[in-house]
Design goal:
transmembrane helix; 35% helix; 5 helices; metal ion binding; five-stranded mixed sheet; copper; binds copper (II) ion; 188 residues; three-stranded mixed sheet; glycoprotein; Immunoglobulin-like; membrane; alpha/beta
């Protein structure tokens, strides 16, 4: 019975780690340290180009709200820098926008001339389920306890891919442990 209890404890830890892994959502500071600006310091197209935005991620716009704002607009209005009929308007100077759907989001600054100067960003959001995950190699659970020693149970990494691989490896470990648990249960 002691072995069974031990396995139960490990399974419980794995489940906690899995939940932790799945709740990881990224937060992006738009323009990084430069923030949301019209000064030409940031090429927002380039900034967004190398990032994978997923449903549940958050954009943070930081700026002086005396000189800037954030307006979510249609693609048509984005292309023509038309801020007169926004979908959403933000103006606190530190706005968090959660990306709720897998679609294109378009943001621009509504102050005159700022969008034309490049203060605009297009964000392509893909479904959370399409996050790249390495395909784990499944091997038969010949030695149940071996699985536990090779799998980390916690993560302090903010890297999404690391978190994802942690999640999938935990999932594999969890599946195997559940299998082991079933086998052990039958043995008793
Ligand atoms: Cu502006």
């Amino acid at each position: 019975m002691a072995l069974l209890a031990k396995i139960n404890a490990v399974v419980f830890l794995m489940m906690i780690a899995s939940v932790f892994g799945v709740s990881m959502a990224a937060v992006y500071n738009v323009g990084d340290s430069a923030g949301w600006t019209s000064a030409g310091a940031v090429d927002y197209h380039k900034w967004a180009d190398h990032k994978d935005f997923h449903v549940g991620d958050t954009l943070v716009f930081k700026y002086n709200n005396q000189f800037h704002n954030v307006k979510q607009v249609s693609q048509k209005d984005f292309l023509s820098c038309d801020a007169t009929s926004p979908i959403n308007t933000y103006g606190t100077g530190s706005d968090s926008v959660t990306l709720k759907s897998a679609s294109h989001y378009h943001f621009l600054c509504g102050f005159p001339g700022h969008c034309q100067a490049g203060q605009k960003v297009e964000i392509l959001v893909t479904p959370a389920s399409l996050r790249p995950t390495p395909s784990p190699v499944l091997s038969p659970p010949s030695h149940c306890t071996d699985q536990t020693s090779t799998t980390p149970t916690t993560s302090t990494s903010t890297d999404k891919n690391a978190a994802n691989s942690l999640y999938s490896s935990n999932f594999v470990a969890f599946t195997m442990l559940a299998f082991c648990l079933a086998v052990t249960g039958f043995a008793f």
